[in-house]
Every structure is written in C-alpha cells, then in structure tokens.
Design goal:
single chain; about 525 residues; alpha/beta; 7-stranded mixed beta sheet; 18 helices; about 10% strand
Length: about 525
C-alpha cells in the first residue's frame, strides 16, 4: 500500500513538474512564448478595435457577482478559456486612458516603445536593486537619472532613483528633510536613534492645494497630520508668498522647527505652479529643505515652448517627477531626484547578503543604496526606449499640445452660458461647474454637478473628474492625451449641458437618479 502511494505521488509530482517547466520562460519554451504573446496582443487589439467608449459604466456590484463565481483553486488549464474569462472580468469593462472621452485623472496614453520595453523587461524579470541582478539595467537607470537632473539644471553632484510614483518620491523627500532637520537642530540621527524628544516641533509647509501624499508622509514618518501646515493659495491657485513668509516667521517665534517647504509644480486640480524662485529665497533664509512636487508639471522639463514655467526648480533640494504622467509612460515610472547625491546616504543600509559595504567601497553601483524599495522592476527601460526611438523633443511637443488643447477647451467652456469656469489653465486641467439658473441654491448646484458626472459615467459617454473648491462641488477635465481633438471634448461639454438641463428639470418633481 505504501509503495503504491509512493509510486502514485512520484508520478503525480513528475507530471506537475513537467506542466510547470512547460510554462516557464526558458530557452526551451521560446516557440510557446511567441505564440502566447501573439495571442495576448491579438486579444488586446481585438478589444480596442471593438470598443468605442472610455468606460462601460459598469457598477461594482455587477462585477462582484461575476467574481463570486471564480474558484482560484480550480484552474481552467486552457489558455483560451483563461483569456475568455479575463475578457469577461476585466477587458470588457476596462477604463481606456487612450480614449478621446477619458478626461478624468492624471492618466495618459502610452508610447509604443514603452510597451515594447514592458515586454522585454517582464520577460527577463530584471530586478535592479543590485548590480549582480541587473548589470546594464543599472546603468540605464543611472543614465536617465543623470539626464533628468541635467534637465532640472543641476550639476554632476546631483543624483536620484526611480520610484513607484509621486507618493513614494514625496515620502523620500520628507524623510531626507526630517533627517537633515534633526541633525542640524539637535545633532540627532533619527535612523539610528528614532525620533528625538522634540519631534513634535517639526513642521512641513505646503499649499492648501498640494497632493495628499504630503500628509500621508508626515503620518508615516511619525510626525502626524498636524505637522503639515496648509498655506492658503492666491487667486491663481498658487501658494501665497506673504502667508508662507508669515508662517515661517511665526514658527520661529513659537519654538517650532520648519523642516521642509513643499512647492507644487502642477497641482492635481488646477495645474498651478507655485512661485518657485520666491519659495527658494524663503527656504534659504530660514535654512529649510525645499522640495518640488513636479509629478504632473515635470513634463515641462522637456517642453520646447513652456520650460520657463519651471524657472527656479533648479534651486530645490529635491524634485519629484512622474514619467507615467507627462512623459506618456506606463505605470509605474517615476523619479525622485536630489541636488546633492550625498543626502541619499541616509537611505542606505548595508546587508551582507545583498549590498555589503565592501561592494560600495569597491565602486559597485547597487541602486538599493538609495532606494526605499528592495526588489524593483526595470521601469527605467520604458523611458529609455521612448527617448531613444522618439526623442525628448517629440515627447515634449506632445505635452505642449496638451497645453494648447487646454486653452481651446477654456474658450469653449467660456462660450457656454451655463458653465462657470474657475481658472485659466496653467498646464492641462480645467475646473468648472454647471449652473442651471441664477436663483439655484448652492446645495442644488452641488447635487446637480455630482449627478451630471454620474450620468456621464453610467451612460458610458465619458469619464470626467470632480473636486471640491471653496466648499462646493465642481467638475474637472484632465487633459493628458495629445491625440484628443477639441471636437471630441465639445461633444462631452454638450452632454454636460444637456444632462444638466434634464436633471435640473426633473429635480422639480423627484430627486436625482
């Protein structure tokens, strides 16, 4: 009995091993690799060619019902069956960032070279944390970091690393700022000793319109949300310099320690760019770390026409750039850059089994020495191939086209008597709302605009964003597709006005659907 069981187990194990080996990417499975990748490409192409909406309008509960039927412990075994299921669960209702009516968040269409790079990097599964896992990939990332620093206007002393996105980059900036503040004011090493007793005196100053990742970073660093001081914005949605100057002076008088000022180059809602030169002057006067969150506006670094909008960014201590926004790269592809490479040493920890100190001393470029992450994908290859095939000027002109389109949309919105526009576009976002009548209450207007956005999505007409501004509900266009034409956005504006009128009329008899 035992012998039979042993024989059965060995046979089953051998069959399982053979199935797994046949499914691994190896030299022996290249024919199957090409066949399956071709099928995957055909699946995506078929889906794109047969779908003409940015979103189907499906509801979470509808998709949840389909997922309830899936038993992950029971494989389908067949590629075609798995692809069919994937279409039903994902592709059929996928959000299309490349679609002309996708106007919601900071998501962009992506370049074909970057797609090719994804295929190459994924197949080899390169991990870039250490030289012995990546070789040339390490140098590709470093070359792109150096290139980015040069575009900012820094010297050869600058450095950086690729990250998962703007939130991680901003966290790293606040980590370095906290380290420097603790050392300068209290001769304290927070990485070795933890937070100093005076840590509750540290403060971060940023615009009221800045990204929420600054608050999250303060919390994760043990400082708390209260450590972030929101500075009011001016009529152009930029950080108010008088208010910032007063806040920094008051901090000293109250015994607080300004740790960092975070300037935003491209706020999420308005695309506004804080006055970088003026902020740099205040930071220098008060010996405060200056970080520029250019996750959105970083595309201006390669803009042939509008690079001047980032004047003063070269004065920052650190900068965030999201290549997966304005550089038209797939997520994730982001960078954290510092003016002085030496500041990154506070992120370093040498592990004997991975990045021993002797390797660093021997000049081995282990990227983990300046990264929060250990295992990291070779995301830099996407930007590399895009630059080598298309060129920075081509990508930059694409970002310029978005700013030209935003101006066209601005004038279009102004021409609609039912639309109130908050601001002139500074990059490629516009905040506005539908106004049904002069005597409509604020509550009614807020409810109406929420309903308009929902109907656009539910009908599959378009995806647009929403935000709160000065306590009220507004709609938002985010333009990151340089292939979109003004007539496509005109169609969306017409639907907004039509739905607004219909919902307003219906509200006299019943609540909005």
């Amino acid at each position: 009995m035992d012998n039979n069981c042993a024989t059965f187990d060995a046979t089953a194990e051998k069959e399982l091993s053979a199935d797994l080996k046949a499914s691994l990417f190896t030299q022996q499975t290249q024919h199957q690799y090409q066949t399956r990748m071709t099928q995957a490409i055909q699946l995506v192409s078929q889906h794109i060619n047969t779908s003409d909406r940015a979103f189907t309008g499906t509801r979470p509960e509808a998709l949840a019902t389909l997922f309830a039927e899936v038993d992950l412990d029971q494989p389908l075994r067949q590629w075609q069956s798995a692809y069919t299921e994937l279409s039903r669960l994902y592709l059929d209702d996928a959000v299309h960032f490349h679609h002309r009516h996708y106007l919601a968040h900071l998501n962009c269409p992506i370049t074909l070279p970057s797609l090719a790079a994804e295929t190459i990097a994924s197949a080899l599964n390169t991990a870039v944390e250490t030289w012995d896992q990546s070789a040339g990939a390490t140098l590709i990332e470093q070359k792109l970091v150096d290139w980015s620093c040069d575009k900012i206007g820094w010297s050869a002393d600058a450095d950086g690393v690729f990250t998962s996105g703007g939130s991680q980059s901003n966290l790293m900036a606040m980590l370095l700022a906290r380290y420097r503040a603790c050392q300068r004011h209290w001769q304290w090493d927070p990485h070795q000793q933890g937070l100093p007793p005076q840590a509750n005196r540290l403060r971060i100053y940023t615009s009221e319109l800045s990204h929420f990742s600054i608050q999250k970073a303060a919390s994760m660093l043990g400082l708390g949300f209260d450590a972030v001081v929101a500075i009011p914005s001016d009529r152009f949605q930029r950080m108010d310099m008088t208010a910032l100057s007063q806040a920094l002076q008051q901090a000293r008088q109250q015994g607080l320690v300004p740790m960092a000022v975070v300037a935003t180059a491209g706020t999420t809602d308005f695309g506004s760019i804080d006055p970088l030169p003026a902020i740099a002057t205040l930071c220098a006067r008060h010996s405060v770390w200056m970080h520029v969150d250019a996750a959105y506006g970083g595309g201006l670094l390669i803009s042939p026409k509008f690079r001047h909008k980032l004047s003063g960014i070269e004065l920052a201590d650190s900068v965030t750039v999201d290549y997966h926004k304005a550089f038209f790269q797939p997520v994730a592809c982001s960078g954290f850059l510092v003016r002085e490479a030496a500041t990154l040493s506070s992120l370093t920890y040498h592990a004997e089994y991975l990045n021993p100190l002797r390797q660093h001393q021997a000049g081995i470029p282990d990227l983990i020495n300046k990264s929060l992450q250990t295992t990291r994908r070779f995301d830099a290859l996407k930007l590399w191939l895009s630059l080598r095939i298309l060129g920075a000027d081509t990508l930059g002109r694409g970002f310029d086209q978005l700013q030209h389109l935003a101006k066209q949309v601005y004038w279009l919105l102004l021409s609609q008597p039912e639309i109130e526009v908050v601001h002139q576009p500074q990059i490629s976002t516009l905040v506005f709302r539908y106004l049904p009548s002069a005597d409509a209450s604020d509550e009614h207007i807020d409810t109406l605009n929420r309903a308009i956005r929902s109907r656009l999505s539910n009908q599959g007409d378009a995806l647009i964003a929403a935000t709160r501004y000065r306590g009220h509900q507004y709609l938002k266009f985010t333009l990151l597709n340089p292939a979109t034409e003004i007539k496509a956005i005109h169609q969306v504006v017409q639907r907004i006005c039509r739905y607004g009128q219909e919902l307003h009329n219906a509200s006299a008899e019943t609540e909005f659907a």
